[in-house]
Here is the input.
Amino acid sequence: MAASPSQSPPSDHQQNQSSSSDDDETNTRRDADIRARDAFAKRLRERDDDQTKKKFKAEPVSHESDRSKLSVEELRKRSRHVYLKSRKEKKIDELEQELADEDYLFKGVKLTKREEEDIKLKRIALNLAREHDQAQQMENVDRYHMPTGKSDETSKNDRYREDNRYSDAKANGQSGQNFEQRKWEDEVIHTALPHFGSLDKDAKSKQPKYDYILDEEIQFVQQLTIPGVNEFLQQKEKSKLHEHEDENKRKYRTLLESRKTLPIYKFREDLMSAIRDHQVLIIEGETGSGKTTQLTQYLFEEGYCEADTEDEDEVEDGDDDDNIKLPDGKKKTKKKMMIGCTQPRRVAAMSVAARVAEEMNVKLGREVGYSIRFEDCSSERTIIKYMTDGMLLREFLGEPDLASYSVLIVDEAHERTLHTDILFGLVKDIARFRPKLKLLISSATLDAEKFSQFFDDAPIFRIPGRRFPVDIYYTKAPEADYVDAAVVTVLQIHVTQPLGDILVFLTGQEEIELANEMLLERTRKLGTKIKELIILPIYSTLPSDMQIRIFEPAPPGGRKVILATNIAETSLTIDGIHFVIDPGFCKQKTYNARNGMEALTITPISKASANQRAGRAGRVAPGKCFRLYTSWAYQHELDDNSIPEIQRTNLGNVVLLLKSLGINDLVNFDYMDPPPMETLRLAFEQLYALGALNHKVELTKLGRRMAEFPLDPMLSKTILASETYKCSAEILTIVSMLSVNNSIFFRPKDKTLLADTARQAFFVPGGDHITLLNVYNQWKDTNFSTQWCYENFIQFRSMNRARQVRDQLETLMERVEIEILSNPADTIGIRKSICAGFFYHTAKFSKNGMYKTIRHQQSVLIHPNSALFDQIPRYVIYFELVLTTKEYMRQVIEIENEWLRETAPHFYKTKKLDDDDKVKKMPKVLGKIKAELERNYS
DNA sequence: GAGCACTGC
Here is the structure.
């Protein structure tokens, strides 16, 4: 069924799809591309010529410095030049060779458009390099004038150089505004010179490291020349202020008009017919194409929400039953079908739903709604539903065939979240026995082919976006200290480039604070010589009021620079960004399945990520992206894509969920990229040990109850065990507090002592879990006060989140039929419950003064922030192992070893754990799992 | 005596 319409290869289909008008359009687009590229090449040449002229006059200076005594700096500089020169030659050779190879190998072969463009670009690059080379043979040319951070004596020479430059410019008849502007800028730079790089006195910073090579230009297609949607709306609203048209009507009409300006609008007919013809369609839509908001509306207008009468006979027996139950027995009361659209993030689901409701002129939560954790804003009448991907996954539990949906759109599929990856396998499966179900997978450019392959060669439909071109600059040589380099680049942009905000990507809070300080210090020294520069940090744990500041516009004549973590890569968009600085790193969580240890490590980003970052500069106007790594590094050292989450995360929860959906063979599940065998094995092993799976690897009753909770299986088990010890209320609190990742205690840098004292005041005997309980209960006693949090160095946001989680868990308790009982004094019962879920995470004090984990015999320490830090309990249970400066157990409680036997008799030997304590051997069934996994993965 | 990328259910 699914196969027949999609037999033609994707590219063919694409061509068939395009009508003659589209052909025209692609032609004009191509022409525009070529023109743009030519103009670009011309600009480059002109600039090079220009600079060659300028530098030509500077020659005597370099001779002069030749004669002077050679300093170490000078020697370094020279050796660097030699290196750069030889490196460049090598690169040019490589490029030449590559092109020659391509000529030879692909002669007469018809290449795809992309390949052709690739070759074309390489040719242009080569030509430019040659031209530049020729220019350099005349002179030792620095391609850009950049602040150099040289010491006073050399800067004098520099000034001489510059002065010559100006006389030269004047001689060429250059004058007027541009000239003055440049002169002014350069003066600013020169007065600034002694201060640049003054923080680090090492020679490195004194080198001309601020040279950028304009290596390539990413061609973001600028399809339409009309103004952006927002601008359009504003204009409309302003112009109609004095009209007497009905407010709502007017608003609706403007919305309708602005919908038509979206790039996707032109493709509507083709798109709809493609959806009619094919069950699965991959939609390759660039940002700004309008797909997320328009697609659902088009589908609705095409009647995809109408109850399908044919389906009634074929597969929808269940629904028939529902209808028969209706008292009137009306046939036509059959529920309308829904169009579902998943998003990876909550905010996106909410805001897009709100926008669509507005465009359709309905109240949000009725015909158009959204569903995210903690908030279901949809109703019986809802026909267009936006939701987070995890939410749809949960819906499978109640409706395994998703019968109430006629269309499913998986948006932002290229982000490859754990949940979308699982969804892929599931929706592909239900599409097989629900031929009427339409499946739309929407993704960014690069991965479309891969998605197509996964969905049995589903056709790809391409929709252009609306974006501005972004110039990409690379450094000539790798930067050792990217924070410093980023700071220097910020200042450089600030003094040399026209107004427009700067976005810097750093890896974490620490780097952001460091960069912030460096920038403050250096701008302070520059004083009023430079324009105003507002520095704004942003990362997820930053208090909300500070976060909001990044959206305030820069002061007139000034500029803002935003120092951000990865949060600015996808999660939030900031308007007005013209410049992006990308050092090329991010923090990633790594999990070592061998010893259960987690660590956050700084790793290079992927190409996809780098391009995403660059794209952030081209949202409102043409932009520039400065990459603090070399073009070679981009080409050869960065992976194409980031490793999908499914391959680097604990799968306990997912395995449990899939098991409860009746998917028994998880090894042969249809993964787009299968998870590592070791991770699956570990998940099975843990679930077996927790009693969620039996010896036949089937889901047990306990496992079914555990699956109800959106938690790690160990936490779910803890909750279920609290029934036995009659302390479910306390356990719910503890589990909720644990699930907001240790961001409860606030520790500002300038008040560490006060904060630590405040934290220690919460300590209670038993350990950290009980301490967390104490914190929550005290907060509750103040009626969840913000002020109390502030006074006690507690993060209100985290507490609020814990409260939300707790509320949700409490309602889920009804489903598993556990009464909520409170027994606050019985910390033994509380700790035994935790033991029942976390017996895997036991560590015993050993002779060497450290703890050893029972499972892996890993040497670990109690975290210094723990309530048990200066105590030495013989047995402890930990919540997690982290590798930071040392191997630490985080969130620890003291236990008695008898409790292990009591709470996990199948896991621990019945004898008392002693010096030679050993974990019971895993039964053979796990050996079987392992063998099966290995067979399937070989 | 330490140190916290980002999501999501």
Q: What stands out?
A: Residues 513 and 737 of chain A are 27 Å apart (CA to CA). Chain A has a mean pLDDT of 76.
